[in-house]
Design a protein that fits this description.
Elements (H helix, E strand, L loop, with lengths): L6 H14 L7 E9 L6 E9 L10 H6 L20
Antiparallel strand pairs: 1-2
Length: about 90
């Protein structure tokens, strides 16, 4: 029997193996890097597990933000006090 796996299938299998080991991957980002070494080093995989970055949705795009009316509040500026406590 011969089984051939491409990089995507190897990465999926590694993530499944990690989950099967009892590591909770909920809310995690998994990055798999495969390296083909030379000679006795062979192939290796480096796996980095980190907290996933939250994606905020529903915010206006930059073009929508520029089209939106800008509200301005009248604020009276107070004159700066030129005295300092240091002399």
């Amino acid at each position: 029997m011969k089984i051939d796996l491409n990089q995507s299938e190897i990465e999926t299998a590694l993530v499944a193996y990690i989950a099967d080991q009892g590591i909770d991957l909920t809310g995690k980002s998994i990055e798999v890097s495969l390296v083909a070494g030379r000679g006795v080093n062979g192939h290796s995989a480096s796996i980095e597990i980190s907290n996933a970055v939250a994606v905020v949705t529903g915010l206006p795009t930059s073009s929508e933000a520029t089209d939106a009316p800008v509200l301005k509040e009248d604020v009276k500026e107070e004159p700066e006090d030129s005295q300092t406590i240091f002399g």
